Amino acid sequence: xxxxxxxxxETKPGSTTxxxxxxxxxxxxxxxxxxxxxxxxxSYLSPDxxxxxxxxxEEAVKKGVQVDVRFFVAA
Length: 75
Known about the structure:
The chain is of the alpha+beta class. The chain is built from one helix and four strands; from the N terminus they run βββαβ. The protein has one helix at residues 47-62; strands spanning 11-22, 25-37, 43-44, 67-71.
């Protein structure tokens, strides 16, 4: 797809690092599957990946995590 940010690049499957902040917690997920613009690097997550990412973040917050860096688990 054409990148909506730079309007020049095309996206290709890849991975990205995503940072989420929620209820005072900062969570960094590495290796998140995404479509990444080959021109500007903007990344786009699928609805399924976004849902899994938010569920993992919610679980971490419930456990009292305040700062965490982890690899994304798709399962």
